[in-house]
Structure formats: structure tokens, C-alpha cells
Amino acid sequence: MFEKFTDRSRKIMAFANQEAQRFNHDYIGTEHILLGMVKEGSGIAASVLKGMQIDIRKVRLKVEALVKAGPEMVTMGKLPQTPGTKRVLESAIEKSRALGNNYIGSEHILLGLVEEQTGIAWQVLQGFGLNTRKVRAEIFDLMGMETTPAEVGMETTPAEVGMETTPAEVVMMPGIVEGMFARAISNIEPGDLVKINMDKPSWHEYFMMEACVVAARSPDNNTKHGSIIVDEEHLPMGQGYNGFPRGGKVDYPTTRPEKYTYIIHSERNAILNCTRRPKGCTLYVTGKPCSGCMKDIIQSGIARVIYGQVDSAMINEDDWKISMHMAKNHGVELLEYKGPSPVQGLVQLCSYLKTKGWG
Known about the structure:
Elements: H1 7-22, H2 30-40, H3 43-51, H4 56-66, H5 83-98, H6 106-115, H7 119-127, H8 132-142, H9 176-180, H10 182-186, H11 203-215, E1 226-230, E2 236-241, H12 266-272, E3 282-285, H13 291-300, E4 304-307, H14 317-329, E5 333-336, H15 342-355
Parallel strand pairs: 3-4, 4-5
Antiparallel strand pairs: 1-2, 1-3
């Protein structure tokens, strides 16, 4: 059951086991999960509680006031789960699936707790004014999602990667962005232009724009690609662009196809630049990953790839089929970015910052 749990979620369950032993209980109940969540103290679940002005120390005190210690006994090892705990974890898995996530995070467990309307954990959370609707809305806000699935359940999910947008005119302004991606901009039809909410872009919009900025560093005169790897809490882990090996005298060929032997793709550079192994992380990349990069993605443990369409016409279709086959075979989620153009978003961002007095 725990193979898709994030490190934080596994810590929560390990702490729950410890809390049960501390109370001389021979089972793991929902109250122990809540105590484990408070003890772990980070991640989206803790951020939700703090964002709703709830002091997590008071949550612990409230639980401890309601929980009675068991008889003097020594409980060792992994304790069994109560039926309520099993329902919470099953609900967490369902919520993750409904949201289109391929991991079980602390936020999914919290949703499971507030929906399990029995037990001490629900009693405590309800006492602090939490309910499914409020928790869900706060989670969606922290995850950068613009719309919340229907209150009845979380069965509705965004149809595509990228949030719903309204077509609108985007102000074009000359400058470095157009210079970097002149070909990509020229391929955008006027009717396809949509406006990114610059007051708060979605996470997908934000990281695709960032991948485009990273691509600007590429020395490749034909195609610039950028990649950025982020963890389940949307924290950047590594980034990279396509280019030659670092250092030394750069006298490699720069024309196709001679350059291909020497170029390191942006996906591989991002993986090599990661601060730790990116297991379970998401890779944002400006174009489709080739089969060679897909092997690196699989080996590194990356769980999801969200790719753009920069120079997609240059991709070898047979090689792309191999990438898709490997991704499916190894459980890597491969998603095409369907949101507003990140290139146009950068142009729009320049205009937006200018209205705020930045240059």
C-alpha cells in the first residue's frame, strides 16, 4: 500500500506507529495519524493547518487530552490499523487518483482524515472548524490549482495539464523573449493566445515559463530547450539546458547532424544538477524527451514528465514512440502541457512587470 507514499507520508505513518506505542496502544487509529502528521510538521498538510490559522501544537494537546493511555505493556514493531485508519488511507489513495497525482502526499491523508467522520481525529479537526470543503479549497490553493472539483466528491479532475483560461489579447513587446523563441512565437496563431493570471500563475504555467527561461542559457543556435525538476511540494530540485559538456575549449560543431554527438540534452543536465535523487519528482521540459533522456528519467526515479512543444516538428516520431513505450512500461506519467503558451506568458510577464515599475 505504501509504495506510492512520499517520504513525508511514510514519516507520518512511522510517527503514528510511535505515537500509538507511546500511549501503550496495540493499534494505529486515526488519532495516531493526526499526531504523526503534527509531529512531522511540514508538507502540504501542515501548511494547510497553518494557513487556516490553526496552531498545530494545540492540535496535539487536544488529541492528547482525548486519548487515554492503555495498560502497561510493551508493543514492538509495526502495529495493525483500525478499520477507520484503513478507510482513511484508502480514501487518500482515491483522492490522489482523482487529482491525477501518482503519489500519496500528506495532503491526501489529511483529506482522508476529514472525510472519515468517526474517531478522535475527526472530532478534533471538526472542533477547529475544519471540514472537507475548507480543507480541499486550501489544498487546491497551495497546489496552485485554479478550480476546485465539485463539493460532493473529487471525481472531476482537470482534463489536461494546464488550467482553464479565457482567450484574450496578449500584448506583444519586442525584446529578449521574442529573440529567444522567435520560431515558437511565429507558430502561435492569434486565436490561440490566452492570458496567464500573472497575479498567481498555476504551478504548471509557472514551471513551464521557468523552463523556457532556463532554455535561454543554451548555446544551441538551432533549438533551445530547458528542463526543471520539482518535488511533490513544488520545490525546485535541479535544472538544465541543452549544451556541450562544461569547461574546456568549446570547438564542437554547431550544425545538424554533426552536433548531436556532443550535445547533452536539457533533461539529462537537470538530472545531473539535482540536489538529491529526484525519486517521485516531476520534470518540466520545453519539448518531447528523446528515448535516451527517457532512460535517464526512468533510472533517476522521476515519476512524471510534463512536456511542451518547442520544435516538436523536429522530433523523430519513431524515437518518440520508443520514449512513450518506455514511459508506459516503467510507470512514468507522460503528459503534454495544454495550458497557455509559456513563451507568450513570458512576453506577457515582461509587460506586466513593466506596469509595476520594473524597467
